[in-house]
Amino acid sequence: MQRPKRKNPVLRTRLPTLPPAARSRVALGLTAAAALGRFELQQCRDCGTVQYPPREACQKCLSVRLDWKAQANGGELVAQTVLHHSNDLFFRERLPWRLGLVRLDCGPTVVAHLHAAVQAKVRVRAMLDRAGQAVIVALPEKENDDMAEDRQLREFTCDPRNRKVLVTDGKTALGQALVKTFAHAGAEIIWVGYAEPWKKFTGFEELEKIAQVTLVPLDVTDSKNVKELAAEIAGKVDIVVNNAEHHRTFGISNRQGVDTARAEMDVNYFGFLRLAQEFGPAMRSRGADGAASAVAWVNVLSIYALANFPPHGTFSASKAAAHSLAQCLRAEMRPAGVRVVNAFPGPIEDEWNQLLPPPKIAPAALARAIVAGLRDGVEDLYPGDVAQEWLARWRDNPKALEREISA
Amino acid sequence: MNVLSHFVEAFSSGRIRVLDLTQTLAPEFPSISLPPEMGQAWPFRIEEVSRYDERGPAWYWNNFSCGEHTGTHFDAPIHWVSGKDLPQNATDSIPPERFIGPACVIDCSKEAAKDADFLLTKPFVLEWEKKHGRIPPKAWVLMRTDWSKRHDPVAYQNYDDEGQHTPGPDVEAVKFLVAERDVLGFGTESIGTDAGQAYHLRPPYPCHYYMHGAGRYGLQCLTNLDQLPPTGAVVIAAPLKIRNGSGSPLRVLALVHE
After folding, report:
1. Phi and psi at residue A279, in whole multiples of 5°?
2. Domain check: are A334 and A274 in the same one?
3. CB-CB neighbors (< 8 A) of A259 in chain B
4. ipTM of this predicted complex?
5. Which of A35, A237, A363, B49 has the fewest Cβ atoms surrounding its Cβ within 10 A?
6. A162: alpha, beta or left, given left = phi > 0 and alpha = psi -120 to 50?
7. B110 Cβ contact list (under 8 Å, min separation 6)
8. What is the pLDDT of residues A30-71, one digit of tens each?
9. CATH number assigned to the domain comprising residue B231
10. Does residue B37 sit at the A interface (CB-CB below 8 Å)?
11. How many CB atoms lie under 10 A from the CB of residue A211?
12. Stated pTM of the model
């Protein structure tokens, strides 16, 4: 993909508009699955029929016992059209728009947005659109290198190619892996924050050598610092990846006082809040700013945000607080079409998880999962075996998980 | 005329100059760093409460937070384990007359420029006394290193893989100043009264250990020591009256006779 032409600075920046966002409660089942990158449709527990669009009862046997279940994503394009006119503000600005009917191998025929390279055989994906609602997108049967650069597909993804990224902490192994992964993914500029510059960190020289990288002093506990950096760059940042984290391994009774817990909250919760207050408004104003608009805000949370891991109890609490705040930010960013992506990794292979047994997710693997999540247009990421297992257990029975991990 | 009215007259006629030995409290100013698993002093942080806006229409004010040992600060004897049981050892119980005292400024700036790990020794102090006279009792001894001129926090902290490299006094010098010169305390321009590598001295952190063990005080992160005469200045250093406080940020002033 060519680097998009520079913006003409004398023209007004287009305001963000959203595709139609209304969904019934039952239809949100498709969104819930798509947020995780899953393709699920309603399936009747009595007659086995898979149906679309979602309804309250089975269209074949009228049973109300319907389950959202993962479905095979293969299908056949049976009809297609190109919209040249729309009364919807979002689509009007993006015409022409290619749509089609896909007969899925699992049964139903669905209306899908069509990738430019789609031919007779397709695979479909439920993806979140700019309104944060699931739609069905038909992709070519076989993956190819420049597939992600499709104009229509880019409206559903948050691909970092040609975009400008802020990674809030370059001092950690994860931060450095993120920078390298974004550089490899074609990010145009990567600002990399580092706090307490007098504390040396390994990898600094290596980061400096990456052409796209600009190192910027950033301590998320310092409101003035966050404000000043935002004043300098917030109007250009397309993707924020907030990986700044304070992690200590204490519960309640094995550490006196609240200093450690407070430091965790100050970075993991208030740091996030400071960043969101200072960078959020500028990003919201650029939600439709051409081919490289502001698109995403990524929070590195923790699987412990779902259920407290008592040996790291105060850390878990700070991540739960950040998770809640991320839901607030998501609601506030949604009108601008800027997606808030939460990553919930299990233990990361780092010094604060030294005493936890493997499997632990490698920083590089987590960084790859985050960039893949942006490309796939998901909202909640559970990268790695531990996170996937905990997610499954949490969805099945949150109370059981609470007991299991506090055992 | 009594002494104070003489003082006021000298002051208003400009014969006494006031020097500010204090660094500005700001979030960028480096904080003391301990190994990350230990408890940490809060760095200076400031949040706006209102600024003539909807949060408070006609007034501007801030909340700030910091540890007792932030920016230019005072160390009370209770700060160190060696001084923990002394009487009058905390910021609220130190007699207020101790907050004013004469200053002897020992210029180590050339030595510190050559060697960041420079240690002030007893012979160095004796050599200074040959030129400037004996250090009087209850005086602040201030070690001038020009370290405060390192405005870049990285150069100021001066860390490498083996820790911090900043100048300070050696064991014998501290013992001599306490036992034989009865000093009020010891002050430096760097972030501690002890040298950056003082953890490896015996005992570790001798200035903290002996000064506070003998009920003496510390001042650190001082600035403008290069503008003080070797002797003759009077230092005013009164910490905040924190109940049982181990120290406090403070404004350190020096009065200099013109």
Report:
1. -95, -25
2. yes
3. 39-40
4. 0.92
5. B49
6. left
7. none
8. 999 999 999 999 999 999 999 999 999 999 999 999 999 999
9. 3.50.30.50
10. yes
11. 7
12. 0.95
Does residue B116 belong to any structural domain of this protein? yes
Same domain, A174 and A135: no
Total domains in chain A come to: 2
The whole-angstrom distance between B41's CA and the closest CA on chain A is 9
Do A381 and A372 contact (CB within 8 A), yes or no? Answer: no
Whether A280 and A401 share a structural domain: yes
State both tokens at B189.
């321009």
Cα dihedral A85, A88, A92, A95 sign: negative
Tens-digit pLDDT profile for residues B87-136:
999 999 999 999 999 999 999 999 999 999 999 999 999 999 999 999 99
Domain end position, chosen among A136, A155, A174: A155
Domain with A263, as residue range(s), is 164-405
Q: Token pair for residue A242?
A: 């907030």
- Of all residues in chain A, the one with the smallest CA distance to B29 is A196
Active site residue B73: no
B106 touches B124 (CB < 8 A): yes
Answer for the pair A110, A78: CB distance below 8 angstroms, yes or no.
no
From A137, A155, A173, the end of a domain falls on: A155
In total, how many domains does chain B have? Answer: 1
CA atoms within 13 A on the CB side of A291: 16
Residue A237's H or E segment, with its range, is none
DSSP strands (E only) in A354-406: 380-381
Structural domain of residue B143, as residue ranges?
3-37+68-257
Nearest chain B Cα distance for residue A174, angstroms: 18
A10 is a domain residue: no
A246 with A263: CB under 8 angstroms?
yes
CATH number of the domain that A326 lies in? 3.40.50.720
